Amino acid sequence: MISVNILGAGNVATHLFKAFQKSENISVNQWYNRDISKISTYKNEVSTIDNISLLEEADIYIIAVSDDAISKLSQSLTNKNQLVVHTSGSVSVYDLDKTLRRGVFYPLQTFSKTASVDFSNVPFCIETIDKQDLELLKNLANAIGSQWYKISTEQRQTLHLSAVFVNNFTNQLYRIAHEISDIQNINFDILKPLILETANKVQHMSPYMAQTGPAMRNDKKTIKKHLKSLENEQHKAIYKLLTESIKKTHGR
Amino acid sequence: MISVNILGAGNVATHLFKAFQKSENISVNQWYNRDISKISTYKNEVSTIDNISLLEEADIYIIAVSDDAISKLSQSLTNKNQLVVHTSGSVSVYDLDKTLRRGVFYPLQTFSKTASVDFSNVPFCIETIDKQDLELLKNLANAIGSQWYKISTEQRQTLHLSAVFVNNFTNQLYRIAHEISDIQNINFDILKPLILETANKVQHMSPYMAQTGPAMRNDKKTIKKHLKSLENEQHKAIYKLLTESIKKTHGR
């Protein structure tokens, strides 16, 4: 049995709490948040506290607060026996107070407030200063059915950047398609199967191999037609730049 | 029973042939291609021909050739009783020879040569000059288990452009993430669940509502850090432009 204390009340903290509660191999001892009202919904399931000095021992403290608050919060921890991890993609493991046993437990996934999370689809990037602590984080990931990867701080920061491309930027391309098709009164539902298949394809094929379309074929006629029909200058610039990028990748 | 003749031997022609063969309500009478060797694999399943004057009557002729070849091929059709449709996203229905009963049967999906296609995930954009012919295309889509949408030529061209954004450009963002993570010896598998979830999210939520990340929050510190770590100038330009686009969409 792994005992855990959670610090913070955002999406990651809340989804982790729910997953830990479901696991037979994890017990959540305490849940701390500065503003206790944000976790009061769960007060019958777990000991909720807003006074950090009341934190008791546990195998792992999980700091799931905003990036800027991690370092300072770690400095206020007085118990020195537990492993203390943060869940951020971009903060270094060394930003945690150096008197602590330190590590990182970063879930590489997008979380909504409302939708429930299937943790079998959430890979964790794990890192510890002390090699011996790695086992504990592996077991924690396993206990909620998640994959884990041993990832250094530098690699994690690169993954965080890559995630911006495949998640935020990709989502913005969906948004642009939505805008363009709205103008012509086209139901966005028509594009949904293509969106899904595009993501499915690279599950078993490299993005390089999966590429198709006018840029890939250097089909100048279609590219010109598309650029002419785009009215929004920013959309035009995005079309041009990504077309150039595809042509460069494929030596066109 | 709907009788069909297929013209062309590319991905769309081949996948349609296979789907039609499986359907109880469709019979493929003839399959024409200029170069008969490309369809000879199927000569025991269907009458294959390379002489266009041998085409016999059928309810629908499906022209699934490259965009540039559609108009000319339609001019060589001498039987005038069947509905003639092309399967292109960007060619106008009026590009088909005007002496014919004309229409469009455009599958909005990405096809691989090798992978088999589940047509329940392929929406068809259908259009006919004569309203009465619409029913025939609806029935054809239904007979292979596909959704259909009544879409004008102008709307279809917009959808084709939108498809470039959600398919080709999105795939290029996956490719860039692959490149960036390769430099740090990161297994691309770690990003696959996020890619899938990003596509899943917009199946039941608008891309506008689904957006998260540093650009959305206007988190200048992270944006600056990311730009600094990108070495490739083109990747940097794409990061900047899509960040600006997200900020504009969300009024940041």
From TrEMBL, chains A, B:
Pyrroline-5-carboxylate reductase catalytic N-terminal domain location is 4-86
Q: Name one Pfam family in it.
A: F420_oxidored
Give residue ranges for domain DUF2520. 122-246
User: What is this protein called in UniProt?
Assistant: DUF2520 domain-containing protein
Q: Which organism is it from?
A: Corallibacter vietnamensis
